[in-house]
Amino acid sequence: MNIETTDNMQNAFFAGVDWGTSRFRLWIMAADGAILGHDHSSEGMVYCAEAGFKPVLEAHLAKIGAPASLPVLICGMAGARQGWMEAPYLHTPTSLRDLFSSATVIADEQRDIRILPGLAQVIIDAPNVMRGEETLLLGAVDEAFSGVVCMPGTHCKWVSLEAGIVNRFQTFMTGELYSVMSQQSILVHAIEAGAIVTAGSAAFQSALRTALSKPSMVLSQLFSVRAAQLLDFEMKSAGAAHLSGLLIGAEVATMISAYGPQPIVTLVSAGPLCDLYAEALNQAGVTFKLIDAEKAARTGLLRAASQLWGKG
Amino acid sequence: MNIETTDNMQNAFFAGVDWGTSRFRLWIMAADGAILGHDHSSEGMVYCAEAGFKPVLEAHLAKIGAPASLPVLICGMAGARQGWMEAPYLHTPTSLRDLFSSATVIADEQRDIRILPGLAQVIIDAPNVMRGEETLLLGAVDEAFSGVVCMPGTHCKWVSLEAGIVNRFQTFMTGELYSVMSQQSILVHAIEAGAIVTAGSAAFQSALRTALSKPSMVLSQLFSVRAAQLLDFEMKSAGAAHLSGLLIGAEVATMISAYGPQPIVTLVSAGPLCDLYAEALNQAGVTFKLIDAEKAARTGLLRAASQLWGKG
Fold first, then answer.
1. Is residue B281 part of a domain?
2. Cα B78–chain centre separation
3. What is the pLDDT of residues B106-149, one digit of tens each?
4. Residues of B with Cβ-Cβ distance to A223 under 8 angstroms
């Protein structure tokens, strides 16, 4: 639990919450986006499905000293069917500006609490959904943005926009594939538990080159993480970077080829994962703009709140 | 435990054992390949690494009533570093006829016991190994075979031979990917535990079509198994077939394109998995010859034993 408060809560405009599967993040913002208090914890959707959403929210607000009637705007998995209340998906193609008007209102006597919708691609041969990333998108790109946005994570989203309209998106389960293959498959023998992969490591760079040059072969290359060690080409310490480079490289190469030779790319990410995707985009010869993921979430919540509650 | 014996052990030529990671299979064979007794159990390498290999082998031989000095020829993971005794890999390119002469002898006062080597592709950008499948190969194809052999399993092997020489091979972790993704990832919500996939099911056929037409997109299609259900395009009962069709379809399409438009394919497999690969090859428009995997193992062991001990 992490708490930070300031004395100027009289300027509080709203509380924004990014409520994910396993994470809770809350910011009290002024109308100009200044952060008056923030808090985060591991009380994500999974935890709250048992413990309740409202008590967790109010406990955090109380600790920060939020005004009693401060409105709250939520994005993420709290709006899933198994969350607090289902916030029906907006269907693509859609403008991001429609997010706020589709927010689902939680019946509450004390405050105005709303959950932003996720996006759904209701296409029978390309079904897809997102919850939370749509709010990052709203905060990451300008109203009239045309290009591609990459949002790495457990499930990495690639979104194609034209003049601010979300046309199509794709999901790569890259983070989860890395996790299950490194922990649950035969590759467990080839990967050190808890290994941190760095973008500059030789094994990551080499695996990126392999995957970028032949992305379609990635499924046949996963076993080479193990075989390379059995044949003494590689040490176990390189296994994590090898697997990560193959998966991220294949993902980036696949999407770059889908979007043509010089797509306009915005990378919305943070931390070590951001460095890995940035390196992959660099190796692929793609220039991109980098936006911090937490800042994008805050900005997206603020933009939607300003539309909803008329300030900012 | 499954035991079958016959009275004519006086014709016994040798005992052949396919000793895998989690399975033990033994056949007493006459010089003409007639099966005089057989037995199988789950006492694979993992079990025997604790319990010992020799006691397990002798217990099975005794139960079947094998002669006291009958020679034994073993293939598979018993020859791995963590197995009974390491049987060093034969390196590609190699003739399959070299398998027998490279067999590793187990020091034993009672019998002649040998373990066949696996194959290693000692190429720094395509490292690969197999143990067991080389013996299936020996049994599945003629001495001068040219073409491609597909051997589905936890790790599916695709082997390219020319005039009986193994040139290159590739490993797809398709079986294991299916297993970890369906049991350990978010897809667990989209797949019924223990579901049996049938080749004729609409979901399998549809997923095959998708993957065969765009194999390079497979990593972005895995999440659609979940999304299709969230958007009510598909029932949970179809999830297993959907995932299986994507993985097998992408594998088959990738390899067929690597080997050119009309490769000569031999499929070495059995059971439900065999039907799934056969359907994928059919949909890809590839004709193939089907060889039963267990028969291939027996035949391979017999061929090597005949070279070693001069009969047959």
1. yes
2. 15
3. 999 999 999 999 999 999 989 999 999 999 999 999 999 999 99
4. 128, 155, 171-173
**In terms of residue numbers, what domain contains A268?**
132-312
Q: Which residue's entry shows tokens 């005949």?
A: B306
Q: What pLDDT, on a 0 to 100 scale, did the predictor assign at position B4?
A: 58
Does any CB of chain B come closer than 8 Å to the CB of residue A169?
Answer: no
Give me the residues of A, 215-254, that contact B with CB < 8 A: 215-220, 222-224, 227-228, 230-231, 233, 247, 250-251, 254
Which region, left, alpha or beta, applies to residue B283 given φ > 0 means left and ψ of -120 to 50 means alpha? Answer: alpha
Quick one: CA torsion of A221, A222, A226, A227, rounded to 10 degrees?
-20
Predicted ipTM > 0.85: yes
Q: Considering only CB atoms, which chain B residues are within 8 Å of A218?
A: 219
Query: Are A227 and B129 inside 8 Å of each other by CB?
Result: yes
pLDDT along chain B (312 residues), means of 10: 67 97 96 96 94 96 95 97 95 94 95 98 96 97 95 96 97 96 96 96 97 92 97 97 98 92 91 97 96 98 95 56
Q: Rounded distance, CA B282 to CA B274, Å?
A: 12
Distance between B239 CA and the closest CA of chain A, angstroms: 14
- Whether residue B211 lies inside any domain: the answer is yes
Check: pTM over 0.90? Answer yes or no: yes
Distances (CA, A) of B157 to A261, A262, B92: 34, 37, 14
- Both A237 and A147 in one domain: the answer is yes
Q: Which residue pairs, CB below 8 angstroms and at least 24 apart, start in B79-86?
A: B79/B104, B79/B115, B79/B116, B79/B117, B79/B118, B79/B131, B80/B45, B80/B118, B80/B131, B81/A230, B82/B45, B82/B49, B83/B19, B83/B45, B83/B48, B83/B49, B83/B53, B83/B115, B84/B19, B84/B48, B84/B53, B84/B54, B84/B115, B85/B115
If we measure between CA atoms, which residue out of A229, A258, A231, A232 comes closest to residue A241?
A229
Number of H helices, E strands in chain A: 11, 16
A202 — contact with chain B (CB < 8 Å)? Answer: no
Same domain as A257, residue A153? yes
Residue of chain A minimizing CA distance to B230: A129
Q: What is the CATH number of the domain that holds A206?
A: 3.30.420.310
Question: Directed axis angle between helix A174-184 and helix A239-259, to 10°?
Answer: 150
Based on the fold, state whether residues A149 and A194 are members of the same structural domain.
Answer: yes
Residues A201 and A306 in one domain: yes
**B121 falls within a domain:** no
Residue A153: phi, psi to the nearest 5?
Answer: 165, -165
The answer to whether residue A126 neighbours chain B at the CB level (below 8 Å) is yes
How many domains, chain A? 2
Q: Could you tell me if residue B250 is inside a domain?
A: yes
Q: How far apart are CA A285 and CA A282, in angstroms?
A: 5
